[in-house]
Amino acid sequence: TQLLEQSPQFLSIQEGENLTVYCNSSSVFSSLQWYRQEPGEGPVLLVTVVTGGEVKKLKRLTFQFGDARKDSSLHITAAQPGDTGLYLCAADYNQGGKLIFGQGTELSVKP
Amino acid sequence: DSGVTQTPKHLITATGQRVTLRCSPRSGDLSVYWYQQSLDQGLQFLIQYYNGEERAKGNILERFSAQQFPDLHSELNLSSLELGDSALYFCASSAALLGNTIYFGEGSWLTVV
What we know:
heterodimer, A: mainly beta, six-stranded mixed β-sheet, five-stranded antiparallel β-sheet, 11 strands, globular, B: seven-stranded mixed β-sheet, four-stranded antiparallel β-sheet, about 0% helix
């Protein structure tokens, strides 16, 4: 059984601070996706990483895929209240579209 | 708006009852997925259909079933409902079977009382 461990589970920070969310597995991914989910809505895809060591940037968000393709991180620089939400990593182990989700990181950014 | 439409948005029903959740995928998407999200289990993959055929099965209970129709919309049937079935049920779709971005609907909130 593939498990995706995401940490931390909860994060409450002040506006302007930096933060990093981690996603780890004992198995190799085909690809890994990061989603953001707001209350009452479905997850929205932020980025997909495929190649080991890959780094992608989306404004103040930096996503990194581990060299061994078993881990990933999401770093947010100078967090803003609008970044508040549930961040989910999801791994595709078999290129079949069936995603295994981490438990999520509930981020709260206070003004 | 992801383009994936789910109905109903909210549903309250009693234990033992049966409900049907409906999903219309994004225009042109052939693959449909169903996920369940609860506080204790997180987002769990239930089942995937591609062009009308079941392609992958996850943690779906025997009391649950799904199908994808020729017009590509999908339905998730939940029967003999239990309190623990209360959750947010998401439908998602993608263009093809492999390696495509998956787009989620807004979900159907099911409350079993």
